[in-house]
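Quick start: what a row looks like.
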Amino acid sequence: MIFNVTGMLLDALVLSIVDIKDTYGYEITQNVRKAVEVSESTLYPVLRRLQKDMCLDVYDMEYQGRNRRYYKITSKGKSQLSLYLEEWKIYKVNIDNVFSGGIKSE
């Protein structure tokens, strides 16, 4: 993708994925990659920041004899996701308007 991906957009993507179900880092990375190109090394700091900001909780669960760290959205995370979704709707309409010639000079 040729467009830059901001930290807030990554936050929004991660929160929307974890809002669907508790999940682990690799699965989050694979889902984010369906929308934007991102490496695991980019995504794990996002997960830690969201945890530090109390938007995500973490817990470990055994999987095939090893512990796997799962991420769960918090009520603060849900509120932040709602804000991101509202802002995205406005942003998308504005960008679509420019691309379709909907903004005219006066």
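That is the whole record. Residues 68 and 104 are 53 Å apart (CA to CA). The radius of gyration is 16 Å.
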